[in-house]
UniProtKB/TrEMBL annotation:
InterPro entries in the cross-refs: DNA_brk_join_enz (IPR011010), Integrase-like_cat_sf (IPR013762), Integrase_catalytic (IPR002104)
Lineage: Bacteria, Pseudomonadati, Pseudomonadota, Alphaproteobacteria, Rhodospirillales
Species per Swiss-Prot/TrEMBL record: Azospirillum baldaniorum
UniProt GO molecular function: DNA binding
Chain intervals with Basic and acidic residues compositional bias: 11-20
Name of protein: Integrase family protein
Domain Tyr recombinase: 23-152
Pfam families cross-referenced by the UniProt entry: Phage_integrase
Alphabetized UniProt keyword annotations: DNA recombination, Plasmid
GO terms (BP aspect): DNA integration; DNA recombination
UniProt region (Disordered), positions on chain: 1-22
Protein origin, superkingdom: Bacteria
Length: 178
């Protein structure tokens, strides 16, 4: 931990900092943060409700020292075992769950990958007017290459040449709404 910083929550279910209609949780380590500096990320009201519901039904195990029921050591995305909490789920295990759920929701969702959620989020944010710095912050990217790659089709459609051409085809010289 850096000097002068308060300890961060750990990405476990008891850690979110609730705020009115939203929350914040710390992602302790990720592909974009292999050193484990941690990143505080925003949670929607829906995510907070889902997390609260999970906390109600999540199993508890006897604490190894006190014997009291606890969820200590349980990850939000963790394997559950009869004898106690398992390790956190691997990226491949999380991907399999998401693919299974996506396929259940839309049998035509072929080609879904582990990056599909990040790609879709980057595209949605760009479509909503978020700039590259905002995309980088939201996706926790250290460089602009990946968000730029993920949004290149949308940027092409919104590019200067496309806007000018559409404007001329309409016969006006005003701004293109895209």
């Amino acid at each position: 931990m850096r000097p002068g910083r308060a300890p961060r929550p750990t990405g476990r279910p008891d850690d979110p900092e609730a705020r009115p209609g939203e929350g914040i949780i710390c992602i302790r380590r990720s592909k974009t943060d292999p050193e484990g500096e941690g990143a505080e990320v925003w949670l929607s009201a829906e995510a907070m409700v889902a997390l609260a519901a999970w906390r109600v039904v999540a199993p508890r195990w006897p604490d190894s020292v006190t014997g009291a029921p606890t969820r200590e050591g349980v990850f939000v995305f963790g394997h559950l075992r009869r004898g106690g909490p398992g390790e956190r789920m691997s990226p491949a295990a999380v991907r399999r769950v998401v693919v299974r759920r996506t396929g259940a929701a839309d049998p035509l969702a072929v080609g879904f990958s582990g990056h599909s959620l990040r790609v879709g989020a980057a595209q949605d944010l760009l479509a909503a007017g978020v700039d590259l710095a905002g995309l980088m912050q939201a996706g926790r990217w250290a460089s602009p290459q990946m968000p730029a790659r993920y949004t290149e089709r949308l940027r092409a459609v919104r590019g200067a040449v496309a806007r000018i051409r559409r404007s001329r085809q309409r016969g006006d010289h005003g701004q293109d709404p895209l």
